[in-house]
Amino acid sequence: MSLFTMGFLLVILQPSSGQFPRACANTQSLLRKECCPPWDGDGSPCGELSSRGSCQNILLSQAPLGPQFPFSGVDDREDWPSIFYNRTCRCEGNFMGFNCGECKFGFSGPNCTERRLRTRRNIFQLTTSEKDKFLAYLNLAKHTLSQDYVIATGTYTQMNNGSNPMFRNIDVYDLFVWMHYYASRDTLLGGSNVWRDIDFAHEAPGFLPWHRAFLLMWEREIQKITGDENFTIPYWDWRDAEDCVVCTDEFMGGRHPTNPNLLSPASFFSSWQVICTRSEEYNSQEALCNATSEGPILRNPGNNDKSRTPRLPSSAEVEFCLSLTQYESGSMDKMANYSFRNTLEGFADPRTAISNISQSGLHNALHIYMNGSMSQVQGSANDPIFVLHHAFVDSIFERWLRRHRPMLEVYPAANAPIGHNRENYMVPFIPLYRNGEFFKPSRELGYDYEYLQEPALDSFQDFLIPYLEQARQIWAWLVGAAVVGGIVTAMLTGLILTCRKKKRGISSEIQPLLTESEDYNNISYQSNF
């Protein structure tokens, strides 16, 4: 595959969304526990002189957590981001960003007052030039240094409580790989001890909102480094796929001719180096991933453990998942039954919604099927198929939101695993976002999916289903009401007829003239149903 020269894409970088703002990765900010950088527009912290925002104490949720993490004060991610900063920018109106220099998702313009809706499209519906541009944008992000964000290479304790900052530069694409790693890494307990049953982005209610925010920030990064404000992430609709149809040199890289675990040298993805894939090594060294290159992308689609993932997900499995009415249930982790989130994530059987961690369904099935870098949680974002896959998973989440129209209160406020309550801040994002902020329809966040815009029968069915479900739940009451209504109507009819018979005895000279049409005009019909 030959791509056009990417030199024209190298533009002046603008502020980005991600992890530690460079302006706050210093001794002074860490010791003061304050991250309120100035906005370039007026030079004041958080753009306060322009009424964009102000430096405020962060407000942490006090809601109780689930029992999955039995420790306190041992992990920098607890009560994020308070171990590093307890004062950050709180933006007003539609302003957003670590210094309130950006617009909220779905808004644009100098004052962030203009609504904007972008459409994510199927990668196979893109023209050749659109597809090549997307691939070129990925490669540009992989080779462009993030100007506004750095990553932490040590814990807060290893930084001597802020007096010895440990941060490192990173390119834009790998910044997001690192964030995915940091949210899902193990807790270091000292020595060789670690706690593995912890994940701030998976295995709990925040899985879908976290990845929704992650993709929106990643999408915005590409828009900025390319200057293409119309860019959106394409998705791969993998329902009923027989194999990895995007695994070709024309798209995301084909199979190497002699080593099935590597990518074809005809794809520039074969030259990409992965980071953050050696979790056991980091744990043994009591260290964090420092973004050192660790080898090429690995991928051997279809040669996975068939007893765990026999095939890619089917349309029927997706439809069953969408029929589940509960977003979350029970322990609110990977053992949850009849949970839409747990079924879509892939820890529950997509035919019964019963938890079965020995199998991998839906979202998890795709990761396991890829049989390589995608199959390890912490380093899975190294493979660019990750964004295509999660964009489609997000579209399924969107279909569920539109079908069931849940209130915000449906998202658990308390007793979820650590970091997953509604008001918890998502790890490791700065600016700060709460889980509940992304439990809403995508149009409110400024984007839609091409296949969800079509006024097809499925959309009408999606609209009717929640009302039909409610009717099913109260059908007995409805039948009883109908019976009672019929009895009352019969009694009233009998009473009216009796009165009319009595009136016929009155002299015709004083009887009112009542025609059939007038009789109907004086009767009001109303359906209780």
TrEMBL record:
Keywords: Copper, Glycoprotein, Melanin biosynthesis, Membrane, Metal-binding, Monooxygenase, Oxidoreductase, Signal, Transmembrane, Transmembrane helix. Its cofactor is Cu(2+). It is found in: Melanosome membrane. This is Tyrosinase. Its main location: membrane. Its EC number is 1.14.18.1. PANTHER family: TYROSINASE (PTHR11474:SF124), TYROSINASE FAMILY MEMBER (PTHR11474). Coiled coil: none annotated. One of its GO terms (molecular function) is tyrosinase activity. Residues 202-219, 383-394 form the Tyrosinase copper-binding domain. GO terms for biological process: melanin biosynthetic process; pigmentation. It is an enzyme of class 1 (oxidoreductase).
